[in-house]
Amino acid sequence: MVISASQKEELKNRFAQLMEDVKLIVFTQENECQFCKETRDIVLELGTLSPKIKIKVYDFVLNGDEVLKYNIKKIPAIAIVGSSDYGIRYYGVPAGYEFSAFTDAILDVSKGKTTLPELIKKKLAEIKKPVHIQAFVSPTCPYCPKAVKTAYQFAIENEFIRSDVIEMTEFPYLVQRYAVMSVPHIVINEDTSFVGAQPPEVFIEQIALALSRTYNPMYS
Question: What whole-number percentage of the chain has pLDDT above 70?
Fold first, then answer.
C-alpha cells in the first residue's frame, strides 16, 4: 500500500490533534516475511507525518527482550503505545478499510481516553480479570473498523484488557484455529466468540460470558 499525497495531507491535519507522543513499534525479521516489508514501510511513512509519532523497528528473532516486553507472538506486528502501553496490537498490513481504523487508534492512544458512553465505561471499570480480545478483520470489510475501534477503546479504558487486531488472510492458521468464516470475527479469551460489528453492549456481555469460564492468559 502506498499512502497518496492527498491522504498524507489529510493525515497531517488529523495528526495535528495528537496530544501525547505515540510509539509505533514494528516487529519484522531480517529475511522479511511476506507482508513484513509493506507493514514496515507504511509505519515508517506515517512517522514522517507528525513529530509526535515515534517509530521503532525490531527484529522478531534478534530482539527477544522487546518481543517479550510487548508480548509479540507473530509477525508482522505493530504495537501502538502511548504514555502507557494499553495492550493494543495490530497484526498484518493496516490497509484498505483497516487503515482508517489504525490511524484512529493512533489518535485515541495519544489522547489516552475514549468516546465510549459513560455506562459502558462504568461496566468496563468493574472488570478485574485478564481479558484478551482478538478481532479478525480483512481490508475489504467495511464493517470491521467499527469492531476494531470498540476493541481498542476497551483496552484503553481498562488495564486488564488487551486487544489484538488480526488481518485474517495473513494468518490462515489462526483462521483455522478459531473457525473464522466471516469478519469481523471477535474471539475473547480463546473460547468465546461472536461475529459482526456489534455495539459495545454486546462486547461487554461477551466479556462477562468469557470471564465466567476458566481462562489462562499464558496460553494466548
Answer: 96
